[in-house]
Amino acid sequence: MKITYEQPAKGDKPALQYDVEASFSLHCFTKGIGVNEQLDKDLLYSDSRETRIFEFRRYELSKTTSRDCTESTDTKVLQHWQG
Q1: Number of domains in the chain
Q2: 50 lies in which domain range?
Q3: pTM summary value
């Protein structure tokens, strides 16, 4: 998903435009496996790095993740996670 954010001009400073590319991992719709957790092997979901448990509530919430990100571009604080 690509988001373009424009910071309005202020005083003698010109407007700035930022292009942000976002991708969403399996963390959006899975949860970590707890110690001694009873596993339903049919709900295990893996990528090249890890195996997690598919979670139906997170899956439903993840359907709006893209929209939520694009609607929040007018916030004053932007956070960045790398990992």
Answers
A1: 1
A2: 2-71
A3: 0.57
